[in-house]
């Protein structure tokens, strides 16, 4: 039952990260830290072998190294980098490529949709909402945390971690 409770934490935190990124264009460190702590608690339940825990840690470290490089190059935000790494910790290597592909496809669609929306004037009733006006500004980036969260939620049911937790 504890594993099922912890698996509810992951989708909740991903949805919270996406909503926060949409509304503020920021993903607070506390979300990535909470994902990491929840994974540690889940690993402590014995659902994964020590070797599997090591592989999940390796997936998180690999994604952190890659996304840190992207952050240092100015391609993505720091919150996106940390969220992707914390997510990889949960997904492990078995779904890491699927996560990258799905998140990229969603991110591309989100980018195109925002660029199209930014080419049109905002309706007055929507323009009064501070987050909508900020999101509509062409100088504002893309809230890529939405794509990262959606990609994670799409691939999560196919992970070894998810199937073991449901079987427990």
UniProtKB/TrEMBL annotation:
Q: What organism is listed for this UniProt entry?
A: Methylobacterium soli
Q: Which PANTHER family does the UniProt entry name for this protein?
A: PREFLAGELLIN PEPTIDASE (PTHR36506)
Q: Where is the signal peptide?
A: none
Domain Prepilin type IV endopeptidase peptidase, chain residue ranges per copy: 8-111
Give the residue spans that cross the bilayer.
27-48, 55-76, 96-117, 142-162
User: Which Pfam families does the UniProt entry name for this protein?
Assistant: Peptidase_A24 (PF01478)
Q: How does it sit in the membrane?
A: Multi-pass membrane protein
Q: Name one GO molecular function term.
A: aspartic-type endopeptidase activity
Question: Which top-level group of life is the source organism from?
Answer: Bacteria
Cellular component (GO) terms are: plasma membrane
- Where does this protein reside within or beyond the cell? Cell membrane
Q: Which UniProt key words apply to this protein?
A: Cell membrane, Membrane, Transmembrane, Transmembrane helix
Q: Which InterPro entries match?
A: Preflagellin_Peptidase, Prepilin_IV_endopep_pep
Q: Which protein is depicted? A: Peptidase
């Amino acid at each position: 039952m504890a594993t099922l409770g912890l698996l509810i934490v992951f989708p909740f935190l991903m949805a919270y990260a996406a909503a926060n990124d949409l509304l503020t264009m920021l993903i607070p460190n506390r979300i990535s830290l909470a994902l990491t702590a929840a994974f540690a608690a889940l690993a402590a339940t014995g659902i994964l072998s020590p070797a599997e825990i090591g592989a999940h840690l390796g997936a998180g470290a690999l994604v952190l190294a890659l996304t840190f490089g992207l952050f240092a190059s100015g391609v993505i935000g720091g919150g996106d980098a940390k969220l992707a790494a914390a997510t990889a910790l949960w997904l492990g290597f078995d779904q890491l490529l699927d996560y990258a592909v799905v998140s990229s496809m969603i991110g591309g669609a989100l980018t195109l949709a925002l660029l199209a929306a930014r080419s049109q004037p905002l309706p007055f009733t929507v323009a009064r909402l501070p987050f909508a006006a900020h999101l509509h500004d062409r100088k504002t980036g893309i809230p890529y945390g939405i794509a990262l969260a959606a990609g994670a939620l799409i691939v999560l049911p196919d992970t070894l971690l998810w199937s073991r937790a449901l079987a427990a």
